[in-house]
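Why predict the complex rather than its parts? Because the way molecules touch one another can change local conformation, and only a joint prediction can capture that. The input here totals 516 residues.
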Amino acid sequence: MSKNEPVITLEHVTKRFGDVTAVNDISFTVGKGELFALLGPNGAGKSTTIKMLTTLLKPTEGHLTLAGHDVTRAQDSARKAFGIVFQDPSVDIEMTAYENMELHAALYGIKGRETRKRIQTLLELVELWDRKDAYVKQYSGGMKRRLEIARGLLHHPHVLFLDEPTLGLDTQTRALLWDYVKRLSHEEGMTVFFTTHYLEEAEAVADRIGIIDHGKLIALGTTKELTKETNTKTLEQAYLALTGRTVRDEEPGKGDEWRMRRRARMMR
Amino acid sequence: MRVIYTLWMRQLKRFFRAKSRMVGAIGQPLLFLVALGYGIGSIYAKAGQGNYLEFLVPGIMAQTVLFSAMFYGAMIMFDKQFGFLKETLVAPVSRFKIMFGGALGGATTATLQGTLVLLISLLLGFRPHNWLLVPVAILILGLLSIAIASFSSGIGSFVEDMQGFQAINQFLVFPLYFLSGALYPLQHVPRWLRIVAECNPMSYAVDAMRDVLIGQTHFGLAKDLIVLFVSVIALLAFGAYRFRHIQA
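Output of the joint prediction:
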């Protein structure tokens, strides 16, 4: 199934919020160096799954590991093993890009000299080195996203989580962003776990795709396998065949309102 | 240590970069000192109570620290809204260090503002009865700042949005301030008010500073300091406990 030994494993993972079951008995693995896309309609359980994998939520039942560390029991080891680019910005906009990177280095215990070297390498990679001393509030949405990717890579994680990393970005920036990610994955053997609503992106980038709906994993495989299984031509057709055409409305909670407002601000 | 230092530094940097906060830090206490110090001062003197400005300065210092350190909770709300909180929550660092570093930063800026009030008071003619005790007054200010910054991080941890935080903040700050003996001596107030003030930890911080700066005390310095220490520990525990359960 996976390219190599598994780096991410989920075994019978369930998450319930009161009466609502957001994730329902999911099991799968993602291998080392693999680019894995988790797709699904709004409210299907994608974000909950990522939150559980990144220690922000505890599963109600089941078992998750990251690079061999139990996500619930060995939280700090698991946290060192991944980097994440959240769906919404999570940089401090009142500080400079360099300061944001420094702060991250301190949180992950990277030593002083090593810190400077890594920051320069990564900011050059995402083409922000010459803007390193500008406040992040002066950055465009795409620049912020690139900064977040650079920051997520600073502690050399085994796994990079990208939660809808290209939402709201123009085509050029999206292409650039996937180029970095693919390059890093190939060069460093880093596993990339991402979600997206752009199916052509998943088709172009992902080695394997998981489709989640109503909290259940309903399909898992390469684009070829999924199109064959559904007797369709593209991933988008396969996706619609599997999840149906009904529009899903996520109940917007307080967090979602913020998210929408924040996103509107970011796009300006 | 580096994590605490870095998060402490972040608060300081943000404070010194926000010009409006600097202006507010000087403007509001100055207004209180001038309006109350001179406005009520003459009646106070006529009533045979002595120099009101002198009496008022420790109260306004405590007020400045109260308002400013409570603002630290708002910083947590900003971090929630702008997403930075998540960056710290997925880091391989204990939640206590994150909370403590930030609260210490908020407490430091509050203490700086309180000290600034003391400097302004000197320009207005205030004189401490013993200059050697001024550092002790600043230390007391620092303890009060840590207590309040921890308290506000606890509140900021469970309140969902800025409006909610503001409402709770107003609801707590004004009683803590007005019912603390910051503005009036507690000897002559009605019994019920004295009981309320005696239950308010702020009263003891104000009283401690008054003792150290102008040699007047209501409770006695030993009792003041015991209450202050207990408040610091209790509120730090409250802040740490709530922050451990914070939802990004």
